[in-house]
Design a protein that fits this description.
The protein is α+β, with helices and mostly antiparallel strands. It has helices at residues 3-16, 31-43, 54-58, 105-123, 140-146, 193-197, 215-218, 227-230, 242-245, 265-268, 273-276, 280-287, 297-310, 317-326, 330-343, 346-358, 362-374, and strands at residues 21-26, 69-76, 95-96, 129-132, 151-152, 158-159, 167-174, 203-205, 208-209, 236-238. A four-stranded antiparallel β-sheet has the order 1-2-7-4, sandwiched between helices. A two-stranded parallel ribbon has the order 3-10. β5 (151-152) and β6 (158-159) form a beta hairpin. Bound molecules: iron/sulfur cluster (2 copies). The site of one iron/sulfur cluster has 13 residues, from α7 and α9.
């Protein structure tokens, strides 16, 4: 079978298995990206979750012998929830970002990559393939951009004309010389909305992100959240969508295309207080299948405490006092102390003063002092 014929049949097949967009590019090195990644490393702007070897991230031939092409795929995810519960006094809610709604996208994208791999093997028995999603070496967004899936927005998302930036990406490197697609034109124009609204100033300039300031990254860390960000994360308990929700290119892109990505509203916007005392077993049973649970329950609980502080939720004071006294994890005890100071009131003040006498951990003690100063 000729390559062009194979490519067009593959494109059809991909659509039939729920791939919303497919693009092709060569396996040549990503030269410009290499410089950009080195610069990001020098500036300390990376999250630390990514592959640290810049060569591997930018040279497909180092990942697959005889690499000729990369197939990029995109699956669109919903931007709106049906029957979204509304939080209120006494029953405040947090929010998981959209990329954590429904089943873990790593599973959904990997399933499609696997099917494409099997489809190719059936037609080209000696084909060589290496596929990846998110945690692979290649930079999904750079591949998608070059393969014509979308342009790279000033908010660093890949924006498609069809689904906006609400897409999951994955790719397969192959030794088949597929015909490359053309990248699509950047349509950001003079707009700077995403840069203007970012709560932490994480978009340093168009297309350059300081991950260390980005709430999407900060909500995934396990230590104390630095003070300057505590009042900025709002009720986000995992991820941040602000620079996407404001983007005019996402207007009207609801993307209710896949049943598997439709969120359970009680999980995507969970009540905050029950999260404070949830057991490991319960957490796994409830949230284990969503991508936002990959760092375990501790960051989610820390963020839930900060969200309760954001709402100044007085009803949470007894629970916060309890975890400040009893939780084994200093980050949770200390964050609870800070939150009690933020919420204030006699009960919180009394508990903080008592904790100051009792607490042994220097980091927690510092948070107690900060809490007292906030009263
Ligand atoms: Fe800023 Fe949130 Fe976008 Fe990160 S995800 S750049 S914090 S708006
Ligand atoms: Fe581009 Fe404006 Fe969207 Fe930012 S908000 S990505 S500048 S179109």
């Amino acid at each position: 079978m000729k390559v062009a014929e194979l490519q067009s049949e593959l494109t059809e097949y991909a659509k039939s298995i729920g791939v919303d967009k497919i693009g092709f590019t060569t396996a040549s090195p990503f030269h410009e990206l290499k410089n950009r990644l080195r610069r990001q490393q020098e500036l300390g702007f990376q999250s630390g979750f990514e592959e640290s070897d810049v060569e591997l991230r930018t040279e497909p031939l180092k990942l697959l012998d005889g690499a000729e092409s990369i197939i990029a795929i995109a699956l669109a995810y919903p931007s709106r929830m049906e029957n979204a519960p509304i939080g209120k006094k006494g029953a405040r809610r947090g929010i998981f970002c959209r990329a954590s709604w429904g089943v873990d996208y790593h599973v959904a994208v990997r399933e499609r990559l696997q099917l494409i791999e099997e489809w190719l093997i059936a037609r080209v028995p000696d084909v060589k393939i290496k596929s990846m999603v998110d945690t692979g070496e290649l930079v999904d967004r750079a591949v998608a951009e070059r393969a014509g899936i979308g342009w790279s927005g000033k908010n660093c998302s890949i924006i498609t004309p069809e689904f906006g930036s609400y897409i999951y990406l994955g790719e397969l490197i192959t030794n088949i010389p597929f015909i490359p697609d053309e990248p699509i034109e950047d349509e950001c124009g003079d707009c700077t909305l995403c840069i203007d609204v970012c709560p932490t100033g994480a978009i340093v300039e168009a297309g350059q992100l300081n991950s260390q300031r980005c709430i999407a990254f900060l909500t995934q860390t396990k230590g104390f959240l630095p003070d300057e960000f505590r009042s900025k994360i709002g009720n986000r308990i995992y991820g941040c969508d602000t620079c996407q929700t404001v983007c005019p290119k996402n207007k009207g892109k609801i993307n209710w295309l896949h049943e598997e990505f439709k969120p359970d509203p009680e999980l995507a916007k969970p009540l905050l207080q029950p999260l404070l005392t949830i057991s490991n077993k319960e957490f796994k049973a409830k949230f284990g299948h969503v991508s936002g649970s990959w760092r375990g329950k501790k960051p989610i609980q820390r963020n839930a405490i900060l969200a309760l502080a954001h709402f100044k939720e007085e009803a949470a004071v007894p629970d916060l006092i309890d975890i400040m006294k009893r939780d084994e994890r200093p980050v949770i005890r200390g964050t609870a102390a800070w939150a009690l100071g933020k919420i204030g009131g006699d009960e919180a003040a009394q508990a903080l003063r008592a904790a100051k006498v009792r607490e042994q951990d220097p980091e927690v003690l510092l948070e107690i002092q900060k809490g007292i100063a906030l009263l």
